[in-house]
Amino acid sequence: MSVRIADQVAIAAAAQALRAGELVAFPTETVYGLGAVATDAAAVARIFAVKQRPAFDPVIVHVESLDRARRVVARLDGAARRLAERFWPGPLTLVLPRAADIPDIVTAGLPTVGVRLPSHPVAQALIAATDRPIAAPSANPFGYVSPTTAAHVAAQLGDAVPLILDGGACAVGLESTIVGFADGQPTLLRSGAITLEMLEAELGAVRVATDTPLPTAPGQLPRHYAPRTPLTLIDSPAAVAAAERQHAALLATGPVADTDGFAHVERLSNDGDLLVAATRLFAAMRALDAGGFARVYALRVAETGIGRAIMDRLRRASH
User: Fold this and answer.
1) Residue by residue, what is the 3-state secondary structure of 211-242?
2) What's the CA gap between 295 and 244, in Å, rounded?
């Protein structure tokens, strides 16, 4: 394993490794991804092996331009094109009919593929230097908390990843919003920093999908993004008895009263700013997981704006 600062030389080496069929972990604005050339089925299969990811869970293809996106999908028009033009580059994945050269392993055999154009300059430079689309789920063991720093990737995947590009901490900290267009109806498949309200301001009404046994996009399984330490959602610290507090941590998005007796209180934001809280959520969950607590109690937030995405991650972590 080699962790390298993502300068021009390191990016060139990473692009060469990808073209040779190797795996590379790299930063995006959302989380760190574990990448392989999307049209190389054998390389993508190594992603699944390293992550121990089930074959029925599709992965997202990353591109550096709208032109390349059009070569990954069979069609990019209508509402999908409006969203691409409005929110790309950025933390939005569009699920669209796939192009013929995208392997089944990328899409879990589905006729659609998730594609996005990340805004992180390292991700863009890497895709451009590789001159190929890059398939990349989050760079962590399947189902665990997603990595938001290169150190997170190194700690969890270690020598299974030959090269990790260190581009600093991820600015968004939550995986991308995913929108599909089954039956022609825009559908929110996974919440993220591009909120439901933002989508509806652009398109009008957007349907919100419910979880299914076999996902049509990443992040739809009931249990996901989960720490090893049990996590329980609560509405108020009053729900936790004094005897339980001494061995438990409390996770809050902002200031909160009645915290006496907890072994630790983790506040994701000093003033309750949910955008700040979102960027710190996964790193905080990792730190709490390493803290030796019997349980983590997480306070619910209102499911509006990015609060919907925060609650999505917490709900799946607690399943």
Assistant:
1) CCCCCCCCCCCCCCCECCCCEEEECCHHHCCH
2) 9
Q: Check: pTM over 0.70? Answer yes or no.
A: yes
How many Å apart are CA 221 and CA 214, to the nearest integer? 8
How far from the centroid of its chain's Cα atoms is residue 159's Cα? 22
**CA separation for the pair 184, 236 (Å, rounded):** 41
Residues lower than pLDDT 70 in the chain: 212-213
Compute the distance between CA of residue 38 and CA of residue 289 in angstroms, rounded to an integer.
33
pLDDT of residue 215: 78
Distance between CA atoms of residues 183 and 192, nearest Å: 23
Strands, E assignment, the chain: 2-5, 24-26, 33-37, 60-62, 92-97, 112-116, 134-135, 163-166, 177-180, 187-190, 207-208, 231-234, 248-252, 264-267, 295-299
> Distance between CA 313 and CA 310 in Å, rounded?
5
Contact 175, 219 (CB under 8 A): yes
The vertex-91 CA angle with 86 and 97, nearest 5°, equals 75
pLDDT given for residue 184 in this prediction: 87
Q: What is the pLDDT of residue 224?
A: 80
Alpha-carbon separation of residue 291 from 170, 228, 247, 285, 286 (angstroms) = 23, 11, 10, 10, 9
- CA dist 249 → 188, 232, 294, 296, 311 (Å): 32, 10, 8, 5, 18
Burial of 230 (0-12, 13-18, 19+ CB in 10 A): middle
- The sign one gets for the Cα dihedral 235, 237, 243, 244 is positive
Nearest to 84 by CA among 215, 176, 149: 176
Token pair belonging to 129: 């230097």
**The pair of three-digit structure tokens given for residue 23, joined into one six-digit string:** 């795996």
What strands lie across the sheet with 295-299, from one edge to the other?
A: 231-234, 295-299, 248-252, 264-267
